[in-house]
Amino acid sequence: MKQDSVVADSPLIIAGQEYRSRLLVGTGKYRDFEETRQAIEASGAEIVTVAIRRTNIGQSSGEPNLLEVVSPQKYTLLPNTAGCYTAEDAVRTCRLARELLDGHELVKLEVLGDEKTLFPDMVQTYEAAEILIKEGFKVMVYTNDDPIAAQRLEDMGCDAVMPLAAPIGSGLGIRNPYNILTIVENAKVPILVDAGVGTASDSAVAMELGCDGVLMNTAIAGARHPVLMASAMKKAIEAGREAWLAGRIPRKRFASASSPVDGTFF
To answer: Pseudo-torsion of CA 116, 122, 45, 225, nearest 10°?
Structure first.
């Protein structure tokens, strides 16, 4: 019997750099830096995001430094602008990150609209993205799940677009899968779900929709056993990607026999 040919996958490429893992993780909300280290290792992530306004990576001498457990030699650091509510603050934060990390250009841009929903302020996001791109930053950008907004950010020159699945930290999973699917189908840059993932199945769904990756923090750090959840997320990302590559069967209203009836002996 002829075996099914192996379906080859391509690596995740962001700003010209190849990555094997499609899971990106944050560093906030853990019990301590040791738990942070263990969870990141269990996740298999190669890109680790850091909230510059909330985490010490050298700007506060004498305090514990995240870089002691998350080495820039081992991981690609992704400074983010969490906690910024204006384009001005976001741009300033990215400039600080570049200074602290010796000219590092890859950043995650998020400009929030209000403290209750943490939805993005898209007007401020567009403004910040335009400035950062002109200054030579490689921008991965947090956005709502609007295909028009995602397309505009890609057209501006963002290196990756990161639509939310649900509000940050909510754990609600993907609320608008068809919006995400539309974004994926129209994109020529990596699309990574960002925010709202709650458990492993949410990650698998994102990958089955064709997303290039998933970024998460609370879903792992807030779990009862963060290191175990990190391992679960790693497996879910891999399984979801394989399922997308394999191509699922179409949904049907009625049953379909697993074994064909043609050629039976009775």
So the answer is: 10
* C-alpha to C-alpha distance for 121 and 87, rounded to whole angstroms: 9
Residue 2's pLDDT is 47
Amino acid at position 263, single letter: G
- Distance (Å, whole) CA 202 – CA 198: 6
What's the pLDDT score for residue 53? 86
Low-confidence residues of the chain, pLDDT below 50?
1-2
Are 216 and 210 a contacting pair, CB within 8 Å? Answer: no
Q: Look at residues 13, 118, 98, 87 and name the one whose alpha carbon lies nearest to residue 50.
A: 98
Measured at the CA of 100, the angle between CA 143 and CA 36, to 5 degrees, comes to 65
CA distance 190 to 183: 10
Catalytic residue, candidates 2, 108, 116, 188:
108
- Rounded-to-integer distance, Cα 207 and Cα 211, Å: 5
Pair 192, 213: CB distance under 8 Å: yes
Consecutive H or E run containing 24:
strand 23-25
Q: Is 2 designated active site? A: no
